[in-house]
Amino acid sequence: MTTLKYKRILLKLSGEAFSGGAGFGIDPSILAKIAKQIKGVTEMGVGVAVVVGGGNIWRGVEAASWGMDRATADYAGMLATIINALSLQDSLERENVITRTQSAINVQQVAEPYIRRRAIRHLEKGRVVIFAGGTGNPYMTTDTAAALRAVEIEAEVLLMTKNNVDGVYSADPRKEPDAKKFDSLTHLEALNMRLEVMDSTALSLCLENKLPIIVFDLMENHSIERAVRGEPIGTLVSDKKER
Q1: What is the pLDDT of residue 241?
Q2: Any idea what the Cα angle at residue 31 is, between residues 171 and 131, rounded to 5°?
Q3: Which of 92, 119, 194, 198 could be bridged to 97 by S-S, CB 3.0 to 4.6 A?
Q4: Residues facing residue 46 across a β-bridge
Q5: Eight-class DSSP state of 233
Q6: Can you count the helices (H) and strands (E) in the chain?
Q7: What was the pLDDT predicted at 243?
C-alpha cells in the first residue's frame, strides 16, 4: 500500500494555472493534466477539495484601478472563478471522477451552494469538491478562501500551486536569478519576511490553525502525488520547521 502523509487535502489552483503560458483564458491541455493528477491522488484514497482562482479571466484589483467600484469588480472576479470551476469539473468527469462544485455565491442552476457539512459528506463518499466564488465577500482573495475552506473541512494540508516556480524564494526567481529558495519556513517567518506565499490574511489564518502549506510547481510530474506522500517537494510552511 502507498504510504500517505495526508489523507485530506485542499488544493489551491490560481487562475493562471488554467491558462498555461498564454496568461489569459483556459488551456484544455492544462486542464486535462490537472484532472489526471487529481484522479491519481483520489485513487490513492485521498480526499481532495479544490479552490480555484479567476485571474485568467478577471482581476478585481486591476478593474478597481481603472476606476470601477472595488466591490463590483470583486464580485465579477467571483463569477470568473465559477467559469474555471465548471471547466475543471467537466475535465474531471471526463476522467470518470465524481465531482461536485459548490459556490459561495448563489448560482443554483450550475452549482450547489456552499454548505460545510454537505462538502464534508461529499469528501467522505470519495467525491472531489470544487469551491468557487471565493469566500462570497469582496476584498477577500481566493487565497483567503483556500485557507478558510481548508480549516472548515479539516484538511490536513493546503497545497498552493505555482506556475513554473518550484517553491518559495527570497525574491521572484524569474526576475532575480540569485534569489534563495527555502526548503521550509514557519508561518511567522513567512509573514515577517513578507514572502509571496499567499496574502497575509490567509497566512495568518493558517498560522492560527497550525495548517501546513506546501508551495510547489503544479507542472512537475506527479507533483500532487509526491506532496500527499510527504516527499520533499517545493517549500513547506508550517508551525515548526519539519525538514
Answers
A1: 64
A2: 80
A3: 92
A4: none
A5: -
A6: 9, 11
A7: 53
Q: Where are the beta strands (DSSP E) in the chain?
A: 8-13, 47-52, 99-103, 112-113, 128-132, 157-162, 168-169, 181-182, 184-186, 213-217, 235-238
pLDDT at 159: 97
Q: Specify the 3-state DSSP secondary structure of 178.
A: coil
> Number of C-alpha atoms within 13 angstroms, CB side, residue 188?
4
The three cell numbers of residue 20 are 498555461
- The C-alpha atoms of residue 188 and residue 237 are separated, in whole angstroms, by 9
Find cell 534569489 and name the residue: 179
CATH architecture of 8-238: 3-Layer(aba) Sandwich (3.40)
Cα distance between residue 163 and residue 137, in whole Å:
26
Mean pLDDT by 10 residues, the chain (243 residues): 87 90 86 96 97 91 87 94 97 98 96 98 98 96 97 97 84 85 94 89 96 93 93 92 59
3, 98, 129 from 238: Cα distances, Å: 21, 31, 24
Place of cell 497566512: 203
Phi, psi of 61 (to 5 degrees): -65, -40
Query: Cα(224)–Cα(230) distance, rounded to whole angstroms?
Result: 10
pLDDT on residue 215: 95
Q: What is the pLDDT at residue 93?
A: 97
Given the C-alpha cell 462538502, which residue does it identify? 119
Cβ–Cβ under 8 Å, residues 236 and 184 = yes
